[in-house]
Amino acid sequence: MATLYGLGLGPGDPELLTLKALNVLKRVPVIAYPAPDTGESFARRIAAPHLPGGQIEIAIRTPMIPGRYPANDVYDRYGAEIAEHLEGGRDVAVLCQGDPFFYGSFMYVFQRFADKCAVEVVPGVSSLGACAAAAGRPLASRNQVLTILPATLPEDDLAARLKGSDSVAIVKVGRHLEKVRRVLDSLSLTNRARYIERATLAEERVLPLDRVSEGEAPYFSMILVSGPDGRIL
Amino acid sequence: MATLYGLGLGPGDPELLTLKALNVLKRVPVIAYPAPDTGESFARRIAAPHLPGGQIEIAIRTPMIPGRYPANDVYDRYGAEIAEHLEGGRDVAVLCQGDPFFYGSFMYVFQRFADKCAVEVVPGVSSLGACAAAAGRPLASRNQVLTILPATLPEDDLAARLKGSDSVAIVKVGRHLEKVRRVLDSLSLTNRARYIERATLAEERVLPLDRVSEGEAPYFSMILVSGPDGRIL
């Protein structure tokens, strides 16, 4: 069996690829990447300027249904396709936006191969560091606790967890923007919240939360909440 | 005024530098880096294979006293030295192991220049993603909460925060190893804890926590605690 790579490509800017990811990318005969039902794969877009050409490509097309996670059979099917290449001695790199193990869909592939063949995970720059850099806000320092909260959580759960935190990153904001805004407002934390959209891309936007217009946020958005020093509440 | 860079160099393996960090590193006339009172700077060691030579170097030597944070006057002094170069039109890159804004000492420099000149923070691969990759353990997925706990916290605080978490990364383990071990034992979480030391370096070690010998851990160590699915408790 050949080697399966989980290749962290960073948050979006193709210059934020690591040298290691670049080397793997140029060497492997097969690349696979998550992609929506129709349209472009964000992971492939990050890798595009670096692809040598002539590689076999597997677009892992999963229906993006808000609030639903991809069905097992989708990953079983693509897993079988990947396995064929590995058994044939061809290394496969799964392209991952950000870091493969930070809320990445690579884990569905990883689960299927971890005990079966050599798997190498190449860590990447995560959206966390990228958003903090874009906002000019340290994530955490000294003995501060940093909490990563998916915006998908219920309102009362979000509120309870914000209360005990020093510094918070709310990920997967997307269609949960108004819910998150309500929670932060109710805790008087809006003035400490910074909204970051498409960090490191040309379209990057950084705004105080109260200047973000109503509605939905794009999938690639994050809200950082931090106090001037110590606990946020 | 020239530009000040906070340059994330990744967790240790010089191949985990980003292309962007590499480009800045080769271009700037001045580099600065944290260093112990005597001996080698870890950040400079990561950058070493990539340095073009002939740059002005500022070793920010801060006494490493366990439990003490560097005194303001140390950073005031080095800040003045950095300011001189910036005022003279020379870009300065501060080398940061991992990511500059993830528990990095760069924030002490950042605070002094954020309002005075152009500051660009280049995010890097953090120890978080590196340790997860080394351990073969996803950090978080779906709607899981990820909590980053500094091992410097008091025992009861660590215990309380572990109880409410889905997935936990305990950073800055070092001389707090036995305290952390006691807390995890008392919560019957030892079997879910993985210990990672010097991730991505040749000396990397990954062990179940109960196989780590007693005493101190090195400064660059982390403990990941994750459940098979969902909450750890």
Q: Count the beta strands of chain A.
A: 10
Query: Strand sequence of the main sheet of chain A, in spatial order?
Result: 3-2-4-1-5
The CATH architecture name of the largest domain in chain A reads 3-Layer(aba) Sandwich
Distance between the termini of chain A: 53 Å
What is the fold named in CATH at topology level of the largest domain in chain A?
Cobalt-precorrin-4 Transmethylase, domain 1
The dominant shape of chain A is elongated
**The top level CATH class name of the largest domain in chain A:** Alpha Beta
Oligomeric category: homodimer
Spell out the CATH superfamily of the largest domain in chain A: Tetrapyrrole methylase, N-terminal domain
Largest interface, with counts of residues having CB < 8 Å to the other chain, equals: A-B, 56 and 56 residues
Arithmetic mean pLDDT of chain A? 93
Share of residues in helices of chain A: 25-40%
Structural class of chain A: alpha/beta
SS summary, helix count of chain A? 7
Taking Cα atoms only, what radius of gyration of chain A do you get, to the nearest Å? 19 Å
Content of β-strand of chain A: 15-25%
Give the SSE order of chain A as H and E letters.
Answer: EHEHEHEHEHEHEHEEE
Low-confidence parts of chain A lasting 5 or more residues at pLDDT below 50?
A: none
Count of structural domains of chain A: 2
Outline the biggest β-sheet of chain A.
Answer: 5 strands, parallel
